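Data availability excerpt. The first of two example chains:
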Amino acid sequence: MTPLRRQRKVKIVATLGPASDSTEVIRALFLAGADVFRLNMSHGTQAEIAERHAKIRAIEAELNRPIGILADLQGPKLRIGTFADGPVMLESGQAFRFDLDEAKGDATRVQLPHPEIFHALVPGAALLVNDGKIRLRVTACTGEHADTIVEVGGEISDRKGVNVPDVMLPLAALSQKDRSDLEFVCDLGVDWVALSFVQRAEDIYETRELVDNRAAVLAKIEKPAAVDAFEAILEASDGIMVARGDLGVELPVEALPPIQKRLVRKCRAVGKPVIVATQMLESMITSPMPTRAEVSDVAAAIYEGADAVMLSAESAAGTYPVQAVSMMDKVARSVEGDELWRPMIEAARTPPGNGVSDAITVAAREIAETAHIKAICCFTHTGTTALLASRERPRVPILALTPFPRIARRLALSWGLHCIVTEKVNRFKMAVVSAARAAREEGFATEADQIVLTAGVPFNTPGSTNILRVATCNERAIFEGGAEG
């Protein structure tokens, strides 16, 4: 079989669901371009999640290509109660109360069974219902109720979601369901865990303690508080998702584009993967073709240098899941083929750090691009060396070689990395041989070509990238060249 090699740098995350539950469809999604599969813990039982996980791993073994799996925790869901006589129409200017009373609601009030919200609210704060379609302003509040004035009316019905954008809610980052799901997916062997409704860096640290290095932790940025505390959240996280759904509900929609660009730039600066998500090709839930605006939205994220773009309902519940992935792949290849894409990527590159690892990685990129080297090969035990190479956004391909499948799967999310599981080596010379062999077998180079290899010696020490070598892809020449170790 010809080695499976993506013809693009940006990665594609595809959510699995009822429309993509079979082994055949999951395989088709991967072959169409999906690099990472998202398991949404808000939908599906743990047994169903386990089945999807097993199918992905079976396809991975069949195609001999690392596949990343991201488990997305539900997070705390804030919902109103129910109404006695069905949906109620709220009119702009009318008074409406939220309270703790378990009685069914009417045109004047409804239960909001979250006392923590009432304790955090202040007069003037906004309450948003049903994805922000209904907007109310708090006029008075106690620990048991909040009186509001309807600013934007509409139909309100049972168990609609509530957003509280103006205050920091004293909510635990992990609900009891999240804790159960977290332990379940870590035991299952997922590669990434996404934490929903992050408000502060402490939310991430709590999750990391429970994960205990069994997976990488990704913070979903979907609340204004998370935008305000982004630097601390980024430092605490292994990766970021710009989750524009709830973020667009809680912030003015016109604020989203500059926020997205700013967050992507900050992630790139520190070399941590960032996913741009939500409504990217939403019309493809029901249509075989996206809108022009959606295509431009995907393209904008790619021009910004995001590591990955994500499909949600398009691949999980839509009529055209494989076509949605294929379309995202086509858009990505078209953008990356544009003569303006490379200058834009390089213009957004930030200066490296002052450490040896940063200097080695920058040198590898500059040597590869100046001397027309075929590929940069990163031999990595922890993923750090490969992430540094990805941060540089080089013009040449990056091969991330590791003896650990879990590291290869985790790195599948990062920009430009072609991940390969190799045999374990204890000497740098054997790492060079392994890299040269992989570059040939995967179709990146011939025996006459050269590669640049970076690694950290001694192996298995995070952040210790300290060796750079230019080598031919001819193994005999490598041994005759007298490399150390």
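And the second chain:
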Amino acid sequence: MTQAQNGNWLRAKGHAGSKVTFLELFFDLVFVFSVSQLSHALFAHYTPLGAIEAALMMFAVWWVWIFTAWATNWLDPERMPVRSMLIVLMLLGLVLSAAIPEAFGEKGLLFAAAYVLMQVGRSAFTSYAMRPVGRSSYINFVRITIYFAFSGLFWIAGGFLEHEARLICWAVALAVEYCGPALAFAVPGLGRSRTEEWDVSGAHMAERCALFIIICLGEAILVSGRTFSEMEFSLLTGVVFAIGFIGTVAMWWLYFRFGHQRAAHRIEHEDTPGSLARLAFTYAHLPVLAGIIVHAVAVEFMFEHPHETGNLAIAASVLGGSGLFLIGNLWFKGATSGRLPLSHLAGIIFLLLSAFAAPFLQVYVMGILATLVLIVVAAWEYKSLTRAPAGPTLH
């Protein structure tokens, strides 16, 4: 398929066509704001209901980003129509991010409208752009557009409702959307998508997701630095600052040392790359993202309540951030390598067992413990994979 054949809207094949463009990086900057807003919203409303609301918004932010990443896997951002579409999405994404703190208050309809416009508009644009490629590619995105249009009814309806009714309505909308890929976007009269039709560039998808994870890790570092700069210096604040930084570095190491490059290689050589990319990138990165956001919230709690004991909610954030991150990496690496990362399983189990001691440990001590778990898991994996023979083994 040449650019002349597809009307100059799609990427060229090969290495050059898989490179992430500067406009895609520019687009991702909007999500620096989104991730920041999510962590601040969770910290400000750290209750069971607040956590559910933050999780719902995180699911929405990730879904709009990952579907845009899928779209630009085929669309060429260097072409003016595609470039214009991404810039419009950036504007809507900024509106979406700005509405996050009051998404379950006065700005619910604004949040919902921006989200629906992004999802439906991008999908409809992509379906139009795919028409020269062939009917199956075009119909695939028609199905996706129908799913987002249907879920959009619940998003907009929720924007007019209040409190629990809005939460339920939006949860139904997300359930429709998240079931879409698993159901192959089945639509009466249009059938289902086939995984062999989703010919994706593993290198492009891996790089796009890696850049998003960098954004999230950067937000965790910014939280530590900003909070540290606003507090009076003491030995304890210095220790907490070091805990937050080292924990973030350990997360970076765990994801990037043996994660995304291996995933790119595996997908490039997979018979059905779309199926593997759907599992490894569309779904498995959710707990990775959640773990980083919760880790950022935990660092703020460590600064504000370092000596507190018996607060199970804070303990859940301190231990849960590392746990969620390990769960996501376990899923991601298991899907893309065919190997079960025993190091990650052991780390998750140890964090679960540590929860029984949490009521008796000060918050900053739990932070040290969670960080040590990440370091041990990283060292275990490194030692195992740098000496392991080829083949499916536990590590």
